[in-house]
Write a structure and sequence with these properties.
Layout: H1 2-8, E1 10-14, E2 17-20, H2 26-39, H3 45-74, E3 79-81, H4 83-105
Antiparallel strand pairs: 1-2, 1-3
Helix pairs in contact: 1-2, 1-4, 2-3, 3-4
Length: 112
């Protein structure tokens, strides 16, 4: 839910105003968050872990790319990360830890 809410909040705060996440990479994190929520309803821990891992990868890679892109354009002057960017990264970290926990707790595969 952190990633889904964070996609709609401002990702960058500038002197000219806030930049919403859904105007850029936040739209893709919103799509991944919806798929991550669907993965929470799956009974298989391995498939749920895969959903959480994909969600974590998207929720960590896209905000990092956004920050690197803005740094390349204007440097450190005139902007600060917004609450949506921080919430998305935090949700990505939580999704990654959930993926790891689900994968470790899943029963081993048996050959038939």
């Amino acid at each position: 839910m952190l990633i889904l809410v964070g996609a709609f909040l401002p990702w960058l705060a500038t002197g000219a105003g806030n930049v919403s996440g859904v105007r850029g990479a936040g739209l893709w994190t919103m799509y991944a968050a919806v798929l991550g929520l669907a993965g929470a309803a799956v009974r298989s821990p391995r498939i749920a872990a895969l959903h959480a891992a994909v969600l974590a990868a998207v929720a960590l890679a896209l905000p990092l790319w956004q920050v690197v892109h803005v740094l390349g354009l204007v440097g450190f002057a005139g902007w600060v990360p917004g609450p949506g960017l921080v919430m998305t990264v935090g949700g990505g970290v939580l999704a990654g830890s959930a993926a790891l926990a689900l994968y470790r707790d899943s029963p081993p595969r048996t050959q038939t």
